[in-house]
Amino acid sequence: MRTVRTIRELREALRPARAGTIGFVPTMGALHEGHLSLVRAARRANDTVVLSIFVNPTQFTEAADLEAYPRDQARDLRLAEEAGVDVVFAPDAEEMYPAGFATVVSVGGSITETLEAEGRGRGHFDGMATVVAKLLLAVLPDKAYFGAKDAQQAVVVRRLVADLNIPVAIDVCETSREADGLARSSRNVRLGPDERRRAAAIPQALRLVERLAREGETRPAELRTAASRILRENGIEEEYLAFVDPDTLERVPAVDRPTLVAVAARVGGVRLIDNVRLAQGEADR
Ligand code: AMP
């Protein structure tokens, strides 16, 4: 495995790999099993696997969150190598945003105005879209891998790639979960033992929604009330729990069609997100 810090070195390292296929997994490091599941998917389908590690300051809308974001590059490099990564791209902020940097990639429309944008501000998506565009253009992979946990991110990335004609296929892989259902996240290490236990109420709430919907409940308000109760009983502060169209992210009036149930909640000081996709009505379409 090779680790490179500059775009010039990255391009150099990938020149021979262009004869085959390149799979790319962008991350902010603090690697966990969720990231590694993306690496494995990339490994299965490509000749060369590139992983990037970059805690992108421009997508953080809270300075304290950026400050507290876990970083352990020695461990990350070890895990990446074990998982079969060929090239790690780990630039510093000056490499990605040198003096004079002035371009922002801003994906417009409802997909960047709702959900995460409501809590974190749409600046989050400008920062994310800009860095993803830069990373995709630096690596120029055949396929890039993203996690379903960040469902809105995947929608925004697909839009960005289509709109800018970036020649890369986007593969969204299923959410990797702990034994109690909690979605794996780099932020989970910041949960205290009691918070970690209570955090399992987030996937429990989503599973309850799934069950009630399967049993025929189609009213978002009813489903939301049941899920919110579980969160409240576990001392989890709900930021949003929304029933949206999986493509447009606009609120659905009834769960009689494919629906993404997306939740953001705070457990103690840690903000977590998760989602589940309900396939309702898919068979009738
Ligand atoms: P991050 O380092 O949090 O920016 O995540 C890097 C990539 O890993 C993103 O595409 C995430 O959606 C994905 N990812 C994070 N957590 C998980 C998970 N639990 N399961 C699957 N993919 C994940």
Automatic annotation (TrEMBL):
A GO-annotated cellular component: cytosol
One of the protein's GO biological processes: pantothenate biosynthetic process
Pfam families: Pantoate_ligase
Positions with a binding annotation for ATP: 28-35, 147-150, 184-187
UniProt-annotated binding residues for (R)-pantoate: 59, 153
Domain of life the protein comes from: Bacteria
Amino acids binding beta-alanine: 59
Catalytic activity of the protein: (R)-pantoate + beta-alanine + ATP = (R)-pantothenate + AMP + diphosphate + H(+)
Record-listed E.C. numbers: 6.3.2.1
Pathway(s) the chain acts in: Cofactor biosynthesis; (R)-pantothenate biosynthesis; (R)-pantothenate from (R)-pantoate and beta-alanine: step 1/1
Localization annotation: Cytoplasm
Top-level enzyme category: ligase
GO molecular function, one term: ATP binding
Gene3D superfamilies linked to this entry: HUPs (3.40.50.620), Pantoate-beta-alanine ligase, C-terminal domain (3.30.1300.10)
Complexes and interactors: Homodimer.
Miscellaneous comment: The reaction proceeds by a bi uni uni bi ping pong mechanism.
UniProt family annotation: Belongs to the pantothenate synthetase family.
Physiological role: Catalyzes the condensation of pantoate with beta-alanine in an ATP-dependent reaction via a pantoyl-adenylate intermediate.
Protein name: Pantothenate synthetase
Organism: Leucobacter chromiisoli
Lineage start: Bacteria, Bacillati, Actinomycetota, Actinomycetes, Micrococcales
